[in-house]
Amino acid sequence: MKKYVNNFEVTGFVAVDAEIRQLASSSVARFPLSISQKENNGKEPKRTSALINVEAWRKNKNAQTLCQLTKGALVTVKGFFKPIEWADKETGELRQRVILAATDICVIDTAEDAPEEPAAPKKRGRK
Fold it and tell me: Whole-model pTM?
């Protein structure tokens, strides 16, 4: 029987600055990742967007990389899907959601993709 692995890789923009909490030996960053998909429905293309909750844990010696997770940063996130369950404080009703637990985050330098400044036009002299 084939073994299935719970993992993902997705690229998107950090929607808001990551909320970073430092614990005794590790740190956690939580942030929403904005992803989008272009779909062709009939004549006009349509872009569908969504926010995905991401959680990234790092040992404190590696936590400085979490500071790069600022609003607008383009990142590729690798990790696994993590189901979360809790009881609602008011009703006691069981709630659940799925987050993306990041094992690897790569911040993409968008300055490399930007077009270069056009050269200044050369002035023509009169003959």
Answer: 0.74
